[in-house]
Design a protein that fits this description.
Blueprint lengths: L1 H4 L5 H7 L5 H10 L6 E5 L5 H6 L5 E6 L2 H9 L9 E5 L13 E7 L7 H11 E17 L3 H12 L12 H6 L12 E10 L9 E2 L4 E5 L17 H12 L1 H4 L9 E15 L1
Helix pairs in contact: 7-9
């Protein structure tokens, strides 16, 4: 998680461009939870969205993140009286020494679990979680243009190709996420009732994938973030180059001419929710 922990990381921009979690995600994990709801721990809380969403369901919520800028943004976004039971602190998932043994009722992590060192995280959570407590980790991978397989193929090539952005991803974390957290396996000796809810998008239209669809959104092509905008007079960067290739393979997009950025497309994200209960 080194990128997010860097002092120069822009937490505000990060919060703006992340797709939001649908209500169904929170409903699913809360329905799975049983027993007391005194203390929830949100690992890798980022700007605090999950901590705030789940705060009405717990007496107290603690959000942690190794990034100082993320914690600053989380605090700034949680000043409302509605979040008076939410606390944020800079900390890693591998060190929960500030939590008492057996105090946790639930531990969640949204779009963060692929970064954890599980040789340390499993023992830590195991000590801090009460018997019957709940674990819920979830995440999503790259968006798919569900009605445009050509553009989806170009997107994948530019994101992971050896001559484009592929070498710049932090591994093995990114691959763990792309594999929908299948490498994250709760130790059988300490956890039971393990459940996985997965979705893999298709390219034959909305809902054409396999599994339970959780994350979808209709966006204009111009809403995808750019590092350097050709439209603002720049020479263009790899993102501009990628969209040029997409326009070549998707005649419908190209037919929009200079207004291609206003073209709306359906997106779905491959996703996973992993849940388990402490023995």
């Amino acid at each position: 998680m080194t990128t997010f922990a860097k002092a120069g990381f822009n937490a505000v921009s990060y919060a703006t461009f992340r797709p939001s979690y649908p209500a169904q995600v929170f409903k699913t994990v809360l329905s799975y939870h049983r027993g007391p709801s005194n203390l929830l721990l949100d690992l890798g809380c980022g700007h605090g969205l999950i901590s705030r969403e789940l705060s009405p369901s717990f007496k107290a919520v603690l959000g942690t993140d190794p990034s100082a800028s993320m914690i600053k943004q989380a605090k700034a976004s949680s000043t409302s009286e509605a979040y008076k039971n939410v606390e944020f602190r800079e900390a890693s998932a591998e060190d929960l020494s500030f939590v008492g043994d057996g105090e946790l009722d639930m531990v969640v992590a949204g779009q963060a679990a692929h970064w954890f060192d599980y040789s340390k995280v499993w023992p830590e959570i195991g000590r801090k979680m009460r018997k019957g407590g709940t674990l819920a980790f979830w995440g999503y991978k790259d968006n798919v243009f569900v009605e445009y397989p050509g553009a989806t193929k170009v997107l994948d090539e530019y994101c992971y190709g050896p001559n484009t952005m592929g070498p710049f991803w932090e591994m093995p974390g990114r691959q763990i996420l792309r594999d929908k957290l299948r490498a994250v396996v709760p130790p059988a000796g300490e956890w039971e009732d393990v459940r996985r809810i997965e979705y893999e998008p298709g390219t034959s239209g909305k809902g054409s994938g396999t599994g339970e669809l959780l994350m979808q959104r209709r966006l204009k092509l111009g809403e995808y973030p750019e590092k350097k905008a050709r439209k603002d007079g720049g020479e263009g960067d790899i993102v501009d180059e990628m969209f040029d290739k997409m326009l070549e393979v998707e005649p419908e997009w190209k037919a929009a001419g200079d207004k291609w950025r206003d073209f709306e497309v359906e997106n779905e994200w491959g996703s996973v929710i992993l849940m388990a209960r402490k023995k």
